[in-house]
Amino acid sequence: MSYQDEICALREKLRELEQTNQDLLADMNQLVGAAKVSKADQEKFRFIAQYWDQLPLVDLMCIAVRRKGKQASP
To answer: Which domain of life does the protein's organism represent (predicted)?
Structure first.
């Protein structure tokens, strides 16, 4: 595989990731809008959305898992 082929493949993967990123952001905004979310949590979601592109996906997954765990705790 030539460098040019690799670059094309990486660009395609980047486009896919950018679309996934936009889809996840839209889903998050929809969930926040549909749920009865406290003002404090709304501010947290707004903060995350503001810096969404700067947060690695792994960090976002960790945030989601921690929030899910807190909801499951008594």
So the answer is: Bacteria
Structural domain count of the chain = 1
The pLDDT tens digits for 16-49 are 888 888 888 888 777 777 767 677 777 777 777 7
Q: What is the DSSP letter of 52?
A: G
pTM over cut 0.85: no
Question: Are the beta carbons of 32 and 45 closer than 8 angstroms?
Answer: yes
Query: Do 64 and 32 contact (CB within 8 A), yes or no?
Result: no
Burial degree of 32 (CB within 10 A; 0-12, 13-18, 19+): middle
